[in-house]
Amino acid sequence: MHSIYFIINSTSINNNEFKLGKIDHMKRYLILEDGTVFAGDAFGATINTTGGLALYTGATGYQEAITNYSYTGQILAFTYPQQGNTGINRDDYENITTALKGVVIGEGYPLTSHWHAQMTLDAFLKAQRIPGLMNVDVRRLHRHIAEHGNMKASLMDTHDEHAHDQIKALVIPNNQVSQVSTKQPYPSPNVGKNVVVLDLGLKNTVLRELSKRRCNITVLPFDTPSSLIETLAPDGVLISDGPGKPEALVKTIQIVKEIQGHYPIFAIGLGFSVVALANDVSVETRPIAQHQINLAVQEKITGITNFVAQNSAFSLSKNDNLKDLLATFVTVNGDEVVGFRHRYLPIYAVNFDPEAAAGPKDGGHFFDDFIELMDAAIARHRREI
């Protein structure tokens, strides 16, 4: 066991005053499903955990990633070597709690001296009862997953046969959206268009982008009946990103089938896959899930390239045609459709995060496009009256 000292901001942040803290690090192990072991030092909560392993390749945005419900039930490993140097602040939460199983980082930065920080990463993980592992060769870990594909993993204080048995016994649940979706409807009032948000694991940044455009928002549980949505008379419906397998969302898929054609729909991430399935287009699991903040995507009509963030374990099946859906965005190498619109209905969807927190801001115009889609639907309705 060895000790590491770090400095965190005191309450007198404006005066750049700091106080000295101390963590005692015990050994901890990341054990992969195939038996590979990565040793490092423990931080965060002192508990053992097992979950799916996800690799986040962005250089920034660890707070947003840790509080993103898309990573529900997963051990999140950051492949950029140094994390934690800017601490945790009150403005960058995507949700006020985290649904992660664990955090793995390369070098844990011992100094948190950012004017915006309220606490260290270690203190946050302790408060949320999330175990962490630091001083790990994350680049070797990345190469291993790139070669062998997605797998389950454990964070353990030992690496005996019992630890391996726990990984093998883990069955990743299909009901992860039900764990993180709001249990009750709630409003985010404004004076503009009435937008219903189906919460599959909603990020705060999506609400901020809609609020910037003065949308009067009602957030609903993922399984809200279409009859209740109808009573709210929305100008449009946004289907959020979230965790888990899209095919498990049987109720949400049926809801989309019932409401499409009645309201403009904008779907993001997991919502993208749900809308595809509702239109009889199949999706498949990626060999390696994509969690990055600099994905280059190209608009097919204009040829313009945008850089966006992506957190997705699923893509449209390459062996299936798009039927009534029309590809609008592809990755720059052209091998994957990451955006589509419906040929006949006011629906479009993207398999990336247009709000990009953290990440580039190229995708903000997608929310403007949603506003225009609602404007067109309102104008069409008025002409028909």
From TrEMBL:
Known EC number: 6.3.5.5
GO terms for MF: carbamoyl-phosphate synthase (glutamine-hydrolyzing) activity
Catalysed reactions, as listed in the record: hydrogencarbonate + L-glutamine + 2 ATP + H2O = carbamoyl phosphate + L-glutamate + 2 ADP + phosphate + 2 H(+)
Ranges where the Carbamoyl-phosphate synthase small subunit N-terminal domain occurs: 26-156
Methyltransferase found in the keyword field: no
Short name of one Pfam family: GATase
Protein name per UniProt: carbamoyl-phosphate synthase (glutamine-hydrolyzing)
Source species: Lapidilactobacillus concavus DSM 17758
